[in-house]
Amino acid sequence: MWQMIIVLLLLLVLFLFVMVFALAKINSGDRKREDDEQEAFIRGTEDTGDDSGRGKRSDMTGDEERKWKAAQTNEERDRAQEELMRKAGKKKKVMEHWQAIALWLMLYDVVAVNAAFMLALWVRFDCRYSLIPDVYLGAFLRFAPWYTVFSIVVYWALRLYKSIWRFASFSELFRIGAANVVTGLFQIIGITLFLGRMPISYYLFGIMLQFAFTVAVRFSYRFILLERNRNKQSEKDMVLHRVMLIGAGAAGQIIIRDLNRASEVKAKVCCIIDDNPNKMGRYIEGIPIVGNRDDILLSAEKYKIDQILLAIPSASAEEKRDILNICKETGCELKILPGIYQLVNGEVSISKMKSVAVEDLLGRDPIKVNMEEIFQALRNKTILVTGGGGSIGSELCRQIAAHGPKRLIIFDIYENNAYDIEQELRRKYPKLDLVVLIGSVRDSRRINSVFAEYRPDVVYHAAAHKHVPLMETSPCEAIKNNVLGTYKTASAALQSGCEKFVLISTDKAVNPTNIMGASKRLCEMVIQTMDRLGKLGRPVVLPDLNGHEEEADYGMAAATREKGVEPEEGQRKPTDFVAVRFGNVLGSNGSVIPLFKKQIEAGGPVTVTHPDIIRYFMTIPEAVSLVLQAGTYAKGGEIFVLDMGAPVKIDTLARNLIKLSGYKPDVDISVVYTGLRPGEKLYEEKLMAEEGMKTTPNKLIHIGSPIPFDTEKFLGDLEELAKASYGNWEDIRELVKRVVPTYKPDNGIV
User: Fold this and answer.
1) Which of 268, 310, 312, 275 is nearest to 291 (CA)?
2) Which of 116, 152, 475, 663 could form a disulfide with 668 if both were Cys (CB 3.0 to 4.6 A apart)?
3) How many domains are contained in the chain?
4) Phi-psi bin for 712: left (phi > 0), alpha (psi -120 to 50), beta?
5) Domain range holding 158?
6) Is residue 485 part of a domain?
7) Per the confidence metrics, is the pTM higher than 0.85?
8) Spatial distance between the Cα atoms of 435 and 446, rounded to a whole number of angstroms
9) How many Cβ atoms sit within 10 Å of the Cβ of residue 423?
């Protein structure tokens, strides 16, 4: 007889597997057919092959269509479909797919609940059917029909036939447990009261086996569906990124789990790198920790890595730089988790990973400024930004808008740039009082009208021509726009009683070898002159440099007039004019970085003027935040100098960018040296030899002592420069050399 019991067990197991695969088949086939029918119905087409039905639009309203789309469960979709089919005069299918699954599960449960207690009885008597007493066997058989019906009712009441088992979780497991507790109590109480007491092991093993059988069919169904979908996805997406994860901490663990869940990412973590020796040789989520940063190159080759994720948000800038310098030698794509705040805020995910930028390799921490000082200085002030559509100007507008100004005025000659920043700020700060004006700082009447109408409290003057090679071929335009434009804007600020005027200067103004740098040095001299004249406490004599007017006579003394800026009673104090001098910024319109990226995208070559050329670099937001803070320190006449850290070789910058793009320099993409351009230096300087250095509360902001010069003579020189520039003199450089003694256009290579 025991052979029969074994056969029955095998049949039960076989029945279990048949049930699971049958349910999976029903789900895939019927579900696909149902989705196709619903989709066709929504589109208003018939899925019957009748040509007359094709092209018909459904008469659903918009609310009905949204209701169908919003249905998330099978039941909701079934009800929505039934409603739509009824409206269209269609008959509902005889049996929906979920009803077929429920019927199969009921059939299985009828067998399973009885098999469980029969097996329990068999096991109680040493797995020998002949040893089972007739009284126990008879009691089991007589109670089985009642128990079967009660179990099916309980299972139905607890929705074990309506759940979507492909999404089964703890909730479904809990309900299965509750159902087995209820049915188990019914078995114990019912059979004991009405038929007689059974062995304790009968009750215990029976309930346990019933729970196991019930869970097995349902969660096996879920597992098979998931595995089948995973296999289909693998077949569909054969190409996966083989990923090396750097960082075996909390952020790394979250990234691994996120990658495992996000099938659309198409990536597999093959190994982990971490410098903690206690983690070596251990595993996270089944992935080995293979070594420290010294093992990156070897592990990348061993595991055939093509993508590296750096997930150490707490690492300092120097540590990230050191690790990334190793990683870029692998030729793999690099991505980095930006910062520790994301871990604190629970924002760590694979979507937060960003491509490694060149600034990540600069090896310093982000510059921090005292935002409270800036907030207090700008709050409830009317602020004008000239050149507000440019790289520096637009970032100035962004940061100023975030600090509660009374009004922000953007002034730019290029309407497209101005429009872009206007739309960005209106979208982000809908309550901001924003005025966008188009005009040129070279137009005296236009700039004077702006100051007369809006009376700005603070001016950030960023309008300028900054491209060195282009200005070398158009020197007069550099003087017109940079020098005379600054003069006219500063003059208007002085006459209107503006509180502060901040000039955006450049380190190219120090010992300039090009006309752009010389023009910015002239701009610094202009604002120093304006500051001195404004603080004289008497009417100021300023040349009227309206060189665009044909009737202007530069040779006559009458070309000067008194502007009458003597402070009236109750008038604001004289304007504080200052300049802020800094080097190159990453990502600006004139930066080499965008050029290098375009050259790499085109397949090369990447052009560098000289292998030894170096520059100081800072990100645009960093530079602007320091400019804003320097403005809070202004007392008038200062030239603020920003500390931009260690200089960077342009050649190294280009090669790093090639490596970060997944290529090898001089192998995949060549680096070509084109020679220094006219007026270009090998290196830039922050201060001239005669300028001293003073400190400020911010260690990254210094003050250069002003170089004395004759103000009256300088104003006369400006008149000559205006005449020469508007007359397009070819020898204007000689005149600039006379005004700026440090300008040496014939000494570009220094």
Assistant:
1) 275
2) 663
3) 3
4) alpha
5) 2-27+95-225
6) yes
7) no
8) 15
9) 11
